Amino acid sequence: MSTTYNFCAGPAMLPQAVMKKAQGELLDWNGLGTSVMEISHRSKEFIALTDQAETDLRELMSIPENYHVLFMHGGGRGQFSAVVNNFLGENGKALYLVSGSWSRSAVDEAIKLTSDAQIDTLDLLVNDNGISAVSIPELAGKATDYRYLHYCPNETVDGIEIVEEINCPWPIVADMSSNIMSREIDVSKFGLIYAGAQKNIGPSGLSIVIVRDDMLKMPSLPQSSIMDYRLAVKHGSMYNTPPTFAWYLAAEVFKWLKVSGGVAAMAKTNAKKAELLYDFIDGSDFYNNTVSAQNRSLMNVIFYLENEDNNADFLAEASRAGLVALKGHRSVGGMRASIYNAMPIEGVEKLVEFMKGFADKYQ
Ligand code: PMP
């Protein structure tokens, strides 16, 4: 059987070892004679699974004790509204940094649920000096009554990663849907971190929320109970029936991450994978990437063919070579190779080799 490398931005490829394990125990999990999908979320076996998942995630991300870890419904976008409804109350204001497509979508949702007056935005322009050089220090000069600052450290569509630390007087809320656990971060710098699962965690639908306990004292808006952080904390993320199979797979991904050396080991390999690809793109006059070096995403590598007439052939030939889902997001065109934790370096090597061959043939 030939190997397929799946570069989809999400739902993305999951570690093969995890998929094989899940396959092996699909019909009989934990010796129960039934699948994990078919048991009560309140059974002692499932609670043991969720306890272990939380312990493993806390260890992987060094999550301090004063943070809650929640497993919620609704993916990334679910959190766009949950953050607003949980923290803004009637009059609260928030500052949203806009660096690309997903951070803009978060703003749209926030305004829809509140009003223009409650949401301030600040465009982060990525230039050759990176982001920090111009805009981030200026944040400290803004009004001080924001309940939180929201930003998206990895713009999945635009291939932009904000590696600069954001220094500001307000709690930071970060959408880490596409770069959670791809590199080490200091969780204590954040008021809340959220991530849709379908890139570095597990199947879609699930989202992970890591929230500092003092954040939960902010006034909230009336909202759906299943997206209420306080209820989620109180009920151990089981106010209603959670997406149990996704939770199980996430737990398996955490175990896999631990035996693979944890986030530090992932970060090393991720840096190598991205370097391989960006170095090749930069050295070629057939492909290009215009994001400034400092803010190039390690997870989503965007590239364009100089001659866009070759796009369809590129995608078709790549697919025949077992390199699938390389088409860029419809809003930006071009190509995108998403190389999350589960993508082995061999996949990137094979992609570079293919890109070389394609350029030689069509140059
Ligand atoms: N934020 C980011 C950074 C994303 O990449 C995505 C999905 N690609 C979302 C939010 C939305 O996630 P979902 O589709 O799970 O709502």
TrEMBL record:
Class of enzymatic activity (EC top level): transferase
InterPro entries: Aminotrans_V_dom (IPR000192), Aminotrans_V_PyrdxlP_BS (IPR020578), Pser_aminoTfrase (IPR022278), PyrdxlP-dep_Trfase (IPR015424), PyrdxlP-dep_Trfase_major (IPR015421), PyrdxlP-dep_Trfase_small (IPR015422)
UniProt keyword annotation of Iron present: no
Cofactor: pyridoxal 5'-phosphate
Catalysed reactions listed for this entry: O-phospho-L-serine + 2-oxoglutarate = 3-phosphooxypyruvate + L-glutamate; 4-(phosphooxy)-L-threonine + 2-oxoglutarate = (R)-3-hydroxy-2-oxo-4-phosphooxybutanoate + L-glutamate
EC number(s) given by UniProt: 2.6.1.52
CC annotations in GO: cytoplasm
Keywords carried by this UniProt record: Amino-acid biosynthesis, Aminotransferase, Cytoplasm, Pyridoxal phosphate, Pyridoxine biosynthesis, Serine biosynthesis, Transferase
Record bears the keyword Zinc: no
Pathway(s) served: Cofactor biosynthesis; pyridoxine 5'-phosphate biosynthesis; pyridoxine 5'-phosphate from D-erythrose 4-phosphate: step 3/5; Amino-acid biosynthesis; L-serine biosynthesis; L-serine from 3-phospho-D-glycerate: step 2/3
Gene Ontology MF annotations: O-phospho-L-serine:2-oxoglutarate aminotransferase activity; pyridoxal phosphate binding
Binding site for pyridoxal 5'-phosphate: 76-77, 102, 156, 175, 198, 240-241
Residue sites binding L-glutamate per the record: 42
UniProt domain Aminotransferase class V: residue ranges: 5-351
Protein localization: Cytoplasm
Entry note: cofactor: Binds 1 pyridoxal phosphate per subunit.
Modified residues (N6-(pyridoxal phosphate)lysine): 199
GO biological process: L-serine biosynthetic process; pyridoxine biosynthetic process
Described function: Catalyzes the reversible conversion of 3-phosphohydroxypyruvate to phosphoserine and of 3-hydroxy-2-oxo-4-phosphonooxybutanoate to phosphohydroxythreonine.
Similarity comment text for this entry: Belongs to the class-V pyridoxal-phosphate-dependent aminotransferase family. SerC subfamily.
Assembly and binders: Homodimer.
Name of the protein described by the UniProt record: Phosphoserine aminotransferase
Organism per entry: Shewanella canadensis
Lineage: Bacteria, Pseudomonadati, Pseudomonadota, Gammaproteobacteria, Alteromonadales
Gene (name only): serC
